Amino acid sequence: MKVIKKDGRVEEFYKDKIITSIENASDDVKEPLTMSDVENVVREVEKNLLNLNKKEVTTHEIRQVIIEVLKNFGFNDVAEAYKNFI
Questions:
Q1: Do 78 and 70 meet the contact criterion of CB atoms below 8 Å apart?
Q2: 14, 22, 44, 50: which has the highest count of C-beta atoms within 10 A?
Q3: At 64, phi and psi to the nearest 5?
Q4: What span, in angstroms and rounded, lies between the C-alpha atoms of 18 and 56?
């Protein structure tokens, strides 16, 4: 899957970037997630993105899916921090 960046560049999808951003958001709200929690969230995010059946997704779409998944897992504070991140 390819990611369309805000500036129009296209690059490969790397789940490591999602892991890092979720960890940063959870650290910001002093609610660190376990590696297992992060892996479960990322797995669900990847599944939801694949279900979009698109070869390219925008960073905005990825952010929305991450926020939705974090909320579904009950990590509301982390989701809010993630939304305000960047």
A1: yes
A2: 22
A3: -65, -40
A4: 16
**pTM, to two decimals:** 0.91
Burial of 12 (0-12, 13-18, 19+ CB in 10 A): exposed
pLDDT in tens, the chain (86 residues): 999 999 999 999 999 999 999 999 999 999 889 999 999 999 999 999 999 999 999 999 999 999 999 999 999 999 999 988 76
How far from 7 is each of 3, 11, 14, 59, 75, CA to CA, in Å?
11, 11, 18, 10, 30
C-alpha triplet 85, 77, 25: angle, nearest 5°: 35
Instruction: Answer yes or no: are the C-beta atoms of 41 and 22 closer than 8 Å.
Output: yes
And the tokens for 35? 């590696």
The amino acid at residue 42 is: V
